[in-house]
Amino acid sequence: MQRDFDPTLLKDIPVFHDLPPGDVDALVAGGKRHDYAKGETVFIHGDPLSRIYIVTDGAIRQFRETPEGKEITIGLAIRGDVVGTTHVFEPFTSYQWNAQAIEVSTLLAFPVRQFKQAIKENSKLALNMLAILSHDMNRATMDAEQLVSMNAAQRIGCFLLRLCSLYHFNPEHFELPYSKTTIASKLGMELETFSRNLKKLKDAGVEIKGSHVAIHDLHRLECFVCNHCSTSGGDCQSLSELHGGIREHG
Amino acid sequence: MQRDFDPTLLKDIPVFHDLPPGDVDALVAGGKRHDYAKGETVFIHGDPLSRIYIVTDGAIRQFRETPEGKEITIGLAIRGDVVGTTHVFEPFTSYQWNAQAIEVSTLLAFPVRQFKQAIKENSKLALNMLAILSHDMNRATMDAEQLVSMNAAQRIGCFLLRLCSLYHFNPEHFELPYSKTTIASKLGMELETFSRNLKKLKDAGVEIKGSHVAIHDLHRLECFVCNHCSTSGGDCQSLSELHGGIREHG
DNA sequence: CGACACTTTGAAGACGATCAACGCCGGTGG
DNA sequence: CCACCGGCGTTGATCGTCTTCAAAGTGTCG
Predict the structure, then answer these.
(1) Torsion on CA atoms A28, A29, A31, A33, rounded to nearest 10
(2) In what order do the strands lie in the sheet with B59-65?
(3) How far off is chain B from A237, nearest CA to CA, in Å?
(4) Cβ of B29 under 8 Å from any chain A Cβ?
(5) How many other C-beta atoms lie within 10 A of the C-beta of residue B67?
(6) Do the Cβ atoms of B140 and A137 come within 8 Å?
(7) How many CB atoms are located within 10 Å of the residue B102 CB?
(8) pLDDT digit string (tens) for A147-197?
(9) Angstrom distance (rounded) from CA A64 to CA A40
(10) Which of A134, A225, A226 has the most B C-beta neighbours within 10 Å, making it the best mutation to test the interface with B?
(11) Model-level pTM?
(12) CB–CB of B72 and A226 under 8 A?
């Protein structure tokens, strides 16, 4: 059971950041590798809360379903992210939402009880979790803010800018890492709205064909996203400060 | 400096939960009591990040301003809540939003550096912070979810239900703890929209006159909030599970 | 080629934002 | 005591945005 994992899977995982190798090994020994096919379910809302997961490869979509069946994407977790953290310290006995692999994915699964215990005993681990949660919280706050303050086209623009910054994409030429359906859901809009608003982004110098994106003029897109500039014609130097649209990932 | 505080101010503060009294005293000795008048500013976006605050009395509104000047309420902090936590573990050097007292308020202010150090040295304190952040994160997630899945009237209904649960109000007869303007902003809608939708809540058996609220039929309001029931005519037993509308505060 | 998932497009309607005017109330000052 | 004012909330009319339903287009993979 110990060392099921390709050690490279454990590089640069924020949860383990700065932890002595011995600690990491001990933790990992208590985990178990799970592999998922694209579309496979990790857990569903109401399942007994048994494990939390560290994503070492692929992408996991977390979502809730409204009573009418509409799916609301809560978050997308990729390599290095943790799924289920916020469940650990709440008195939940079941998962509060669904998680599904949207790509071929590899997760490390840890029994909740054991992971919680590890956090209690290892203060460095606890600090890492605090840093992760703080960061997630700030992102959630910004996402909610954008939901009420920006229109669909601007949210998409923000998303693209953030993608470039996060993954060090070349703005002139990159591929969307998720399906448009997934992105639309994550941005809190319908797929049709997403599709239609891609045209509006053309005015901001963004071309999207299939999953290929070309941002011809970064600065123009930044101004487009920041309403102030579009109305006043002025410059927009502090977008990242204002909206976190291109802020760096921990 | 030590013991500026009425000791009752320190009862039931989640940050200090289960901490040995000695630890609490030591922590509090490093803090400073700040009092604010209604409307007074605690800090503004861009101020150097110097302190985090524990609310021991009153209410603090945290908000950002869009470039056009619209204010977006990020959260309302009341007795026991912490303001600025998510700043501590991020590489910010300035506050990322504004904080303002919306009532006469008392805060305990702690220098960020010192508070961070305390968390590093006191693992129980770290666990408390983890619990708080987890809880806030779950709330933020639910708020964002409601923003995209419910209409204005339903969000207001949810808010009222949550109020009753949180403060143990009698649904038949209670007063809004915040101004309608504040509530509307917190729910991500305009004051006019809020005002208009109060009428729609009448259909769900809710009467609001001034700041006085009377929910005549809890169950009907819960069904109103949960679209499933309104369309299918069915019962709605698991609202709290579904939407957190009436979930308990840590 | 054909099946299927994904995406685009069109038309209609619901919803909330915005602008503007008005009502209500508590406080201040004459 | 009354007039005036400012903060707060309500109401009405209009407009833009997003959702919804329906249909057609595109791509991939067997």
Answers:
(1) 90
(2) B41-43, B98-101, B59-65, B71-78
(3) 12
(4) no
(5) 19
(6) yes
(7) 21
(8) 999 999 999 999 999 999 999 999 999 999 999 999 999 999 999 999 999
(9) 16
(10) A134
(11) 0.90
(12) no
